Amino acid sequence: MSIVMKPSATRDEIDDVIHKIKSVGLRADVSSGEYQTVIGIVGDEKKIDFDQIKSMDGVFDAIRIQVPYRLISRSYIPSDVTVKVGDIAIGGENPPVYMAGPCSIESYEQLYRIAREVKGAGAHILRGGAFKPRTSVHSFQGLGVEGLEHLQNVGKDLGMPTVTEIRSEVDVDTVARHTDVLQIGARNMFNQDLIEAAAKTGKPIFFKRGFSSQIDEYLSFAERIVANGNRNILLCERGILPLGGSFKLQTRFTLDLNAIPVLRKETPFPIIADPSHGTGRRDLVLPMSRAAIASGAHGLMIEVHDRPQEALSDGAQAVSPHILKKIIRISDLVYKAIRESESPFSSDIRNGTEHS
Ligand code: PEP
Ligand code: MN
Predict the structure, then answer these.
(1) Spatial distance between the Cα atoms of 239 and 252, rounded to a whole number of angstroms
(2) How many CB atoms lie within 10 A of CB 330?
(3) Is residue 185's pLDDT more than 90?
(4) What number does the ligand 1 atom closest to the CA of 103 have?
(5) Which ligand lies nearest to the CA atom of residue 208 in the structure?
(6) At what angle do helices 282-294 and 321-340 cross, to 10 degrees?
(7) pLDDT of the residue at 345
(8) Cβ of residue 128 lying under 6 Å from some atom of ligand 1
(9) Distance of CA 207 from the midpoint of ligand 1 (Å)
(10) Residue 165 and residue 107: Cα distance in Å, rounded?
(11) Which atom of ligand 1 lies nearest, measured to the CA of 314?
(12) What pairing do the DSSP bridges indicate for beta strands 271-273 and 88-90?
């Protein structure tokens, strides 16, 4: 349920509604806009009398939102949400934001070398993995805390905000101390404890879609971030399992471009596309970057390495800094072309609500 207060509602009237929600053991998510306050309910709405809420002083309306991800739905928050990472604004009408860097942090020198080039190519946020999710226990697992220190130092040295993956809730405080954005990877999309612990830091959460999850399922888990008091969510489409059967797979995953306009329609939060993991092939990263921006992504996450044959993980999908520069230039052009096309790249079109 979403409770819309009258623009004239007093502080006491708002507090009475919050008190009513809390009195039956539910939590209130309060969204104070310029004109009105909207209050969302976290928990089992059956515990609360809909008509009683509607009749309370200062209440304009109470609306039942049917989707399981009501706090991040467009019905609850109609206009696009902008998430700030340092000075960088992501989402809404802001130009695309680029996050780039190596899959794994291998040493201070490696990260600094790549980060300098990535920054020169126009990327805004530096990525680098320190706690790597790996299928094989025999592969490189990441440098752990040492990697986090390199990321923090390189980020500071170059004046770039950083993002890194957090794999376990026991590391939440350590990772949050070293980085600006916490990434929850595809394999942990269903990890409630990790999501809740990460959300509670209040830091922006870069939340990747699981490669075998439905969009509703994905948004239901993203809802937990807001339910834990954190509205700084960056959603990420990173590819789903490809069809293959007994045939040779041409790509590691299938970047689900459908998901981008669907997510834009369902939720006002920013959507980032990851064509590196979405394809697993460096030659496909540029074309799929263009396509992702054209389909409405607010930014891209790109894996970059200057010596991909030596990379300790995901070398096959790492593009060179030179290609990154090209990706950013072309993606910016695609974004501008769409914005400037004769019917402006209106939120109606992007949100899929335009009628012919
Ligand atoms: C990554 O970003 O390096 C990563 C492992 O991503 P994903 O969780 O999408 O596989
Ligand atoms: Mn990777």
Answers:
(1) 9
(2) 15
(3) yes
(4) 3
(5) 1
(6) 20
(7) 46
(8) no
(9) 10
(10) 17
(11) 3
(12) unpaired
Report CA-CA distances (Å) from 110 to 98, 182, 267, 304. 20, 21, 38, 11
**Where do we find the tokens 């950013």?**
328
Confidence of residue 245 (pLDDT cuts 50, 70, 90): confident
32 Cα–ligand 1 center, Å = 35
CA 19 to CA 25: how far, in whole Å?
10
Q: How far is CA 107 from CA 10, 129, 143, 184, 227, in A?
A: 56, 11, 8, 22, 37
Q: Residue ranges of the alpha helices (H) in the chain?
A: 11-23, 50-54, 108-120, 145-158, 172-178, 192-199, 215-227, 259-266, 275-279, 282-294, 321-340, 347-350
DSSP-assigned letter for residue 179? -
Q: How far apart are CA 161 and CA 209, in angstroms?
A: 22
Whether the predicted pLDDT of 162 surpasses 90: yes
Half-sphere exposure of 292 (CA within 13 A, CB side): 33
315 lines ligand 1 (CB under 6 A): no
Query: What distance in Å separates the CA atoms of residue 321 and residue 328, rounded to the nearest whole number?
Result: 10
On whether the CB atoms of residues 63 and 1 are closer than 8 A, the answer is: yes
Task: Determine the 3-state secondary structure of 153 from DSSP.
Answer: helix
| Cα-Cα-Cα-Cα dihedral sign, residues 305, 306, 310, 316 | positive
Give the pLDDT band (50/70/90) at residue 225: very high
| Token pair 């396509």 in the structure block, residue | 291
From the CA of 303, how far away is ligand 2's center (Å)?
7
Residue 188 contacts residue 211 (beta carbons within 8 Å): no
Please determine, for residue 350, whether its predicted confidence score (pLDDT) is greater than 70.
no
Ramachandran class of 80: left when φ > 0, alpha when ψ lies in -120 to 50, beta otherwise:
beta
Q: Which two tokens stand for residue 290?
A: 């263009």
DSSP 129: B
